[in-house]
Amino acid sequence: AGKMGTLGTVAIARTPTGQQEGGREARRGGQRDASPPLAPRWALLIARTAGVLVAVIGLVALTGWALDLPVLKRLHPSFVTMKANAAAGFVFSGLALVLSAGAQRREPLRRTAEFCAVVVTLLGLATLTEYALGRSLGIDELLVRDDVQADGTTYSGRMAVNAALAFSLIGVGLLGGKGVLARRLSDAACV
After folding, report:
1. Can you list the alpha helix ranges (DSSP code H) found in the chain?
2. 152 φ/ψ angles, rounded to the nearest 5 degrees
3. Is 34 helix (H, G, I), strand (E, B) or coil?
4. d(CA 66, CA 64)
């Protein structure tokens, strides 16, 4: 299959085309375990940076709602306000991404990232359910009161249906999953 070498505790095999494959080696005996290879540092840096950026956007919007500052509730003056639930979805999505980047060997971080991803998924699915049923589940103004007349939205405090769908898919994508089916669903949701 190609040349074999080791780099720290990571086994790297080069295929005939020169690409790297491999997984972590066990400390004793040099046998490979079934865990996936560690992500390169630059990929972790990009994921963490994106996660922080997403979380900060959500925190800015939540600050706008808490302090009643319209300029912080919108990404652009011509846009409708980012609803508080959507802002919370941004915060939890960003946290899940930051915590899951490189948390393969840290169980508490991985569990916290999974919790955040579940919150994002449930937030999106609950909002989609509200749209489908034409009823409120009481989550729209759970964090703050919204004036429906202020920005011309139909439902007071409710994020848009496309945002709810996006949060549902993002949450599933952030969950990742361990089995083949769960991984495929996660990959499909990320696309």
Report:
1. 41-67, 70-73, 84-100, 107-133, 148-151, 161-175, 180-190
2. 75, 20
3. coil
4. 6
Residue 60, both tokens: 């800015």
Q: What is the CA radius of gyration of the chain?
A: 21
pLDDT digits (tens, 9 = 90+) for 96-105: 999 988 666 6
| pTM to 2 decimal places | 0.71
Cα dist from 53 to 90, 162, 191, whole Å: 9, 21, 20
Q: What is the pLDDT of residues 3-60, one digit of tens each?
A: 444 333 344 444 444 444 444 444 445 555 455 556 678 888 888 999 999 999 999 9
Other C-beta atoms within 10 Å of 39: how many? 14
Cβ atoms 87, 55 nearer than 8 A: no
Beta bridge partners of 25: 32
Residue 85 vs residue 24, higher pLDDT: 85
From residue 27, how far is each of 11, 67, 103, 174 by CA, in Å? 11, 54, 20, 30
| 153 Cβ contact list (under 8 Å, min separation 6) | 80
Whether residue 86 contacts residue 166, with contact meaning beta carbons closer than 8 Å, is answered with no
